[in-house]
Design a protein that fits this description.
By secondary structure, the chain is of the alpha/beta class. The chain has three domains: 1-95 and 210-230, Periplasmic binding protein-like II (D-Maltodextrin-Binding Protein, domain 2, 3-Layer(aba) Sandwich); 102-196, D-Maltodextrin-Binding Protein, domain 2 (3-Layer(aba) Sandwich), CATH 3.40.190.10; 231-315, 2-Layer Sandwich (Double Stranded RNA Binding Domain), CATH 3.30.160.40. It is 32% helix and 22% strand. The chain has helices spanning 12-27, 40-43, 49-52, 60-67, 140-149, 162-170, 181-186, 220-227, 232-248, 293-306, 309-314; strands spanning 4-8, 32-36, 73-77, 89-94, 102-105, 134-136, 154-156, 176-180, 195-196, 211-216, 256-263, 266-274, 281-289. The strands form three sheets. The chain has a five-stranded mixed beta sheet with strand order 2-1-3-10-4, with helices on both faces. Strand 11 (256-263) and strand 12 form a beta hairpin. Helix 9 (232-248) runs parallel beside helix 10 (293-306). The protein is globular and about 60 Å long. The relative contact order is 0.15.
Length: 315
């Protein structure tokens, strides 16, 4: 049998994700090989994502290769994907979700702040909130929410793969980074997580921590082979989160956080829409049955919109 061709970016994290999918396929008896594709987002590391159209620049070339049948499936970080699948493509499966939280990362050799002001409500030590703190992140979602935790800090865009950003941090270009816990854990860098940020304080990006596998809509044979890898809970959570984004007309470069979790058949979703300066923020929560994940997400989005979320996201 000809191996399935898996399209992936060439970063260390993207390769980890693609290899995880290949290994999972091989455990079901399906051979697979990787095809590395350079995206526009990878090629222009010195340009802010917001100036390039957002995180979609990490998937366009892979989508094109999938449509041209140069690859059989594509592996993405779900948070890089649009809420609605491009025409002719569909998500066939997602892997179990890793830690969805954001992480604060300080330079090697430095210690976390002590004392009562250096700990959160759960007793987790937090990096210093000094006025001179420079925080490296270009994510509007993270900036808008973290401004409330670090009102006097300065935020600077920092591009590059995880290892590149860590090198810039350790070289002193910024005082602290904000990265996804999931990526650090998958790369064996859990020890670089100085403090995870509670979801209540910084609601993650839709799909954060989830690996999605995309195929052509009509490729039923490939779809059936990939479907064996699907994690139902992660797929339901992703569907709910994407429903919120789609209903609000948002994108991955807007200050919008959405997180869904399941407890048995019970689904709970929380979301936050904010102005970029963090001065105005709309929180919302919704609960429902897991079988009605999309409907629950739409209901939450409509509630947020009724309280001004659309104006914040599209101003």
């Amino acid at each position: 049998m000809t191996p399935l061709r898996i399209g992936t970016r060439g970063s260390a994290l993207a390769l980890w994700q693609a290899r995880a999918v290949a290994a999972a396929l091989e455990r079901t008896g399906v051979a697979a090989e990787l095809v590395i594709i350079t995206t526009r987002g990878d090629a222009k590391q010195d340009v802010p994502l917001s100036a390039m159209g957002g995180k979609g620049v990490f998937v366009t070339e892979i989508h094109d290769a999938l449509r041209r049948e140069e690859i059989d499936l594509a592996v993405h970080s779900a948070k890089d994907m649009a809420a609605v699948s491009p025409r002719g493509l569909t998500i066939a499966a997602v892997l179990p979700r890793e830690d969805p939280r954001d992480a604060l990362v300080i330079p090697l050799g430095r210690t976390l702040a002590g004392g009562s002001e250096g700990h959160d409500n759960d007793g987790v030590a937090q990096p210093s909130r000094a006025a001179t703190t420079v925080i490296g992140t270009g994510s509007p979602r993270r900036i808008a929410q973290l401004r409330r935790l670090y009102p006097q800090a300065r935020f600077e865009s920092i591009r590059g793969n995880v290892d590149t950003r860590l090198r810039k941090l350790d070289a002193g270009q910024v005082d602290m980074l904000v990265l996804a816990c999931a990526g650090l854990r998958r790369l064996g860098l859990s020890d670089r997580i100085s403090a995870p940020v509670a979801i209540a304080e910084c609601v993650p990006a839709p799909g954060q921590g989830i690996i999605a596998i995309e195929v052509r809509t009509g490729a039923e044979r490939t779809r059936s082979m990939v479907a064996a890898l699907n994690d139902p809970d992660a797929r339901t959570a992703l569907a709910a989160e994407q429903a919120v984004v789609a209903e609000l007309g948002g994108g991955c470069q807007l200050p919008l956080g959405v997180f869904a979790e399941l407890h048995g058949s019970d689904l709970a979703i929380r979301a936050v829409a904010a102005s970029l300066d963090g001065a105005r923020i709309v929180h919302g929560e919704a609960a429902g049955n897991s079988a009605a994940a999309v409907e629950t997400g739409i209901r939450l989005a409509q509630d947020l919109a009724s309280r001004g979320a659309m104006e914040l996201l599209h101003s």
